[in-house]
Amino acid sequence: LEEASGIVIIIVSLLGCSATSKQNRCLLSIFLVVIGALFALLCVAAIASTIYMSNLNKISDMNFNQLNTLTGSDKGTYDFIRESYGTTYNTSRCSGGECRFIGPAFGCTAITCEASSSVANTLNDWLAEGIKAQGITQQSFSTCVSLATSDASFEGGQSGASAWCGSSTRVIGLINGWSLGMLIGL
To answer: Listed GO cellular component terms (predicted)?
Structure first.
């Protein structure tokens, strides 16, 4: 994606330079339309990012149990992040991450991914940090898994849902930490 946006910027810049040097009205008109469209897209992305960022800040301060009871735009933000995790889990052909309580202890199996060991390492790091979160109870964890598996747009299946629920607070915290930089990058 970054390479594609860089290539688009280079092509548009070359179009503008060429149109200016040749004083070609047709090329200048095309350049104006393309630059205007890019500017409009940037404005829409900035507004959407600002709205998304406020929701993300709010849910990143919530504990595990509170994430199960989200409503409105906060739930939409949470669902988007959960679906993205499930898509990553599914497209990388991952398995594992099955979490459960053994007495008072909460533990998860390791995640392995056929497509990429680096994705598996990242998901395992998130899972290891996520299971340390406050508010994880057997009931709240079961509710989280049930909500994820009943969501038709979540592609991770049962094990992906378990892995998501084990690592959700960590993933949301990381995304929140990077969101300001992403907004500035836009």
So the answer is: membrane
| 56-74 residue pLDDT tens | 888 888 888 888 898 898 8
- How do 94-96 and 105-108 pair as beta strands? unpaired
Rounded to whole angstroms, the Cα distance separating 110 from 157 reads 16
- Closest residue by Cα to residue 172 from 153, 144, 139: 144
Q: Please answer whether residues 133 and 65 qualify as being in contact, where contact means their C-beta atoms are separated by less than 8 angstroms.
A: no
Cα distances (angstroms) measured from residue 55 to each of 10, 16, 133: 34, 38, 20
pLDDT (0 to 100) of residue 34: 86
d(CA 170, CA 9) in angstroms, rounded, equals: 35
Q: Are 144 and 119 in contact (CB under 8 A)?
A: no
> Any bridge partners for residue 85, and if so which?
none
Q: Where are the alpha helices (DSSP H) in 61-185?
A: 64-67, 72-91, 117-130, 138-150, 157-185
